[in-house]
Amino acid sequence: MEEDSFWFTAEIEGKRGFIPKNYISLHPHLWFAGAISRLEAEQRLCWQDTGVFLVRESESAPGEFSLSVSYGDRVEHFRVLEDGGQYYIWDKAFCSLNRLVEFYRAHSIAMEKVVHLRHYPSSLHLNSHLGRNPYPNPYNSNSLESIHSAHCHPNPSPRDWQTSAHSLKPVLEV
């Protein structure tokens, strides 16, 4: 049933189940980017103001989430852990992703410096997933994703470009 387009996975008070699609109307948050890769998250967030973020479906652990945050010159990725209907990144647990995001808007998500989550610029769109179930089946995987930072690199100068047409690919698509 996890791929059935007529059902959504829902959670309320720590209990999970399926709800028929015609019973609800979803309005995804602008910060939810859906099933994008870690690399695409880095491309979207690189060189954004510190704290600009997105939540995406985890690449390495289907059914789980990752929080990608711009640190200006690099992007940090945080695994959102889930245990018994509670979501957490560090040691504080939340009953939903929404509450986790709201908490880290007011409190620093980083340990080494103050970084509050900030809205993504409204001129750029994260919601390439509209029309899909933004809540994947949570029972798929418990594997852990490594948390490494990605450093942003400025655009190469023309002398660094390769001449092969096959090697030319866009760095950022908006």
From TrEMBL:
<dbReference type="Pfam" id="PF00017">
    <property type="entry name" value="SH2"/>
</dbReference>
<feature type="domain" description="SH2">
    <location>
        <begin position="31"/>
        <end position="122"/>
    </location>
</feature>
<keyword id="KW-0727">SH2 domain</keyword>
<protein>
    <submittedName>
        <fullName>GRB2 related adaptor protein b</fullName>
    </submittedName>
</protein>
<dbReference type="InterPro" id="IPR036860">
    <property type="entry name" value="SH2_dom_sf"/>
</dbReference>
<dbReference type="InterPro" id="IPR000980">
    <property type="entry name" value="SH2"/>
</dbReference>
<dbReference type="InterPro" id="IPR043539">
    <property type="entry name" value="Grb2-like"/>
</dbReference>
